[in-house]
Amino acid sequence: MSRIMLGALLAVAALTVAGCSSGTTDGEPVAQQETSGEKTVQFNPCEDLSADALTAAGLDPASEHTTIDPPTGATSWRICAWKVPGQPYSVSIGASTHMQDEVLDNPTVTDFADVQIGSRSGMTYRQVDDEHKLSCYVSLPSSQGMFNVIADWPYSKRDSVPEAPPCSLAIKHATDLEPYLPE
């Protein structure tokens, strides 16, 4: 995973945590696992996506790289990446307790576009500091937060990226993975 993408995910996490500290919430409460009073993400893409699901999405299950998956304690993100056989890019899948709408208030991301993935109203975006536009995020809502499917093209292969940012690739993989992600 690129340093830009990791920094961006951490920035999103930091901003959304700061934004979740006050105010009231409408709607019905959703059961969450609690540790030290913090919500923790329940779905773990590193463990909960089967090899069949990953293969169906064009990913190599044996190439898993864990980015964020703490063994204990509360966490608002769990993220793993997989390589795409025969391609230079990787795909990361993140699950979070943060809501999709929170991304819109994050000043480190830009170029938002609505996208329909299955029955979910998602959006694509990229990092402001990704000057070569080598990563594209697809955010999908879930009942407990959101999922991100990220296509990440390596800097060393930047001259061969088919589109910058590679949102068509991110959308393709998000579409393939969406049936395997909990509502």
3D structure, described in words:
- It is a single chain.
- The protein is of the alpha+beta class.
- It has one domain.
- Helices cover 23% and strands 31% of the residues.
- The strands form two sheets. The chain has a seven-stranded antiparallel β-sheet.
- The longest helix has 17 residues, at 3-19.
- The chain is globular.
- The two termini are 26 Å apart.
Summarize the entry for a quick read:
With 183 residues, the protein is α+β, with helices and mostly antiparallel strands. The chain has helices at residues 3-19, 45-48, 51-56, 100-103, 167-177, and strands spanning 33-35, 38-40, 65-68, 77-83, 90-96, 109-117, 120-127, 135-142, 145-152.
Shape: globular
Which class do the helix and strand fractions yield?
alpha+beta
The number of strands is: 9
Rg on CA atoms, Å: 16 Å
Number of domains: 1
Q: Helix share of residues?
A: 10-25%
Low-confidence stretches: 1-35
Strand content: 25-35%
Mean pLDDT: 85
Largest sheet: 7 strands, antiparallel
Number of helices: 5
Q: Order of SSEs, N→C? A: HEEHHEEEHEEEEH
* Strands in their spatial order, largest beta sheet: 3-4-5-9-8-7-6
Span from first to last CA? 26 Å
